[in-house]
């Protein structure tokens, strides 16, 4: 089949393929291109020698460009229209067609030269950001970030016009299909109304208790890796369809049937890699658990970044920072590192892993203060996209917001608004999904425990079977058949809300020690 | 630029691009696709989890298919014709245009359905071959190999018709541009006339001397790896543009500015990996040394498999099995493995690495008997492509030939005609390049030593500078500017011949111990 996807007879039958069948072939080709790009991107972060970076950029650019052509070909539009007019598709194919249309609409909404201008602006901006952050020099980044923002606003407007959405909602939709400001605003307003007080109260209660006993390294990195692999296996990672490696910034990537997660080891602190591996394994479980029959089709894709983050956090935060899990983990750690003593008790280890400590850096934030970093970023980026906040005013607005939400005074922009790559790389509409994910994780875990009352007891024995089974049925194998809120309603009885998240934080950080 | 390569204005000047400039853009895109495929192929042999194989097959198939479309687009043919009509190209661009035409001619010669039929036949054949070889069951492979051969003959005829060549020459041309049976036949006839006697004489002389002292393992694999890296560095491998890993079958692959070689370790015998790494490093030096300004264009490519093999063998065989090199290597090995004793002398190690011992397996053959395996395969595959040898008669013809050339009687087809993957995977026209490469290696090394009389002395000190510098100027940086024979004539004073190879084998295996 040519890149243009001309209608060819369906092999073996002599019959003409339907428009829908032709689209399935087109999207299978897109999935193959996406998989190729995924492995090349993973390789660039893990193994690629420095001198290969420019050529790798060329390779990824051509794959993206060819995918864009395949998705925006006139024949694709014709086939979509024909398939949408036809009748008789069952639920999965019908949902697949819906997702095909969504992908094509996003791709065709933005003119090619705007895509290329944005890509060039982002490349320049990312390079300058690394230096600006290192030198705490916002003025250096400002013109580049302003250009990136200008182009993202144009993209948002173009997509919005095509999809019938406001610019921010259009950008958000590409990260989290169906998510809207109208959904997020009330949820985040609710969060803002009680989170600061919860954080303050948690810290009071923490200060009133004896501090947990610290652990002293070093902790052999080879042992850390073996531990990580063992936990991945316990959680349910399929090593015939994935692997664990090292990169500067941990992530979950790769391709279908080839899910590659990474971590980074610190010989002084094994907890970072351990919890990081559990986090990425949550993501990986989702990817590996997608509906097999549809895994090369759009309806087989994971349903957006909020649900994806709910899967990483349901493992890392809900399950693996529970008191029950530390009953299982503590002896494993003692044996692996050859340690003993009161600081290695399950109780103490759990306390060390459930501290509340406001800080400047989002990626280092604890479970309770993390959402404050997101509330701030959501406020700022919605304002920037709306044209209500100029880039030159970003540092001031950021610092004011952090003081308000966490009571901290930013000493320099390196640990302030320059800390994250998202905006310099053009990712507006991504930040809220972290906390929407945390909320969904709590909501799903609550429902899982209702359905599987033995779940906490199983975690105390390192048995993830019940949790994994429930997640497979309720999330992973649904793929993109349902939108996020329909999936949550089916799984938990209600669309996304804050109640479960609040109850969870109160139980873990304000309640009895069993949280 | 679209996949079809429409003529767009040359960025920044407002002028229309010439047909040649448009072609350069088209071929740069092809190079990026080729690089992507190269990394994915490398990954499949080194790191990919088993469950990802099918999806990887899809990814590679789409990359090949898209590259084929770009190369065979009507606009490419139009631009080639226009560029060929135009005048004023300097030597490098003119050679680039010549190579572009050659690539396009090969690609357009074969109808799409023939390409696909051949690809499917090869996939099936390769799977059956592994089982057939394991069970020494030629009858099982026969129908599949017959189908592969049938399709390769058709491809040879199609290419031959388009290129004005006989079918075998057309197939050969895709592995070794410009190489022809008319060149190979006299060279191989000459080889056949003296090689068996040389082998017999070498074995007589060997038997008349005390046998070299064996080495006893085990040899720590981590130490072997460090040794390999150190030697790669000495030879001149650039680790900012490449890496060393492990695979089942060692190879040199990857992409431009990202040359990835592999090896395989045997704790009982460090020599296999050591010489293997040196062999692949020779290939890598060629790839890394290609003319930088043209490295994404056809004229910047290495000039065919014979020259490529000359580069691996000039390092492994010419340089690194010389007596001088063992003066450098022996103390390195003693220190690395913590050994001493007479068996670790440079003299003894050199003797161990220059044994002549006819065997059944080509890949295990020593330098003197290896060409006999190639002479046999060349004879058989030219006959198969000409229709003069039926697949059903292959085992008998193979066994007769091996008895004639090496005096060995094949006990079963697993160590006979089933040992190599080449024919089952459709590679007809590849085998002769191994020995053409060995001949070219000897011829080039002789010329290098003439130009750099200090070369052997430098090797005795582990200094590859003079050899590397000579190879860069005379081979690597020439890319495909010149055809193989013109390159050899420029570098050595004569086109490819057997004289230097014969002189080398006689000196090393029949001469004084300094060979």
TrEMBL record, chains A, B:
Key words, A-Z: Carboxypeptidase, Hydrolase, Metal-binding, Metalloprotease, Protease, Zinc
Any GO BP: proteolysis
Catalytic activity: Release of a C-terminal amino acid with broad specificity, except for -Pro
Domain of life: Bacteria
Catalytic center residues: 280 (proton donor/acceptor)
Required cofactor names: Zn(2+)
SUPFAM superfamilies from the UniProt entry: Metalloproteases ('zincins'), catalytic domain (SSF55486)
Binding site for Zn(2+): 279, 283, 309
Cofactor binding comment, as recorded: Binds 1 zinc ion per subunit.
InterPro entries: Peptidase_M32_Taq
UniProt key word Metal-binding: yes
Protein family membership: Belongs to the peptidase M32 family.
Purpose of the protein: Broad specificity carboxypetidase that releases amino acids sequentially from the C-terminus, including neutral, aromatic, polar and basic residues.
Protein name, UniProt field: Metal-dependent carboxypeptidase
Species of provenance: Methylobacterium tardum
Lineage: Bacteria, Pseudomonadati, Pseudomonadota, Alphaproteobacteria, Hyphomicrobiales
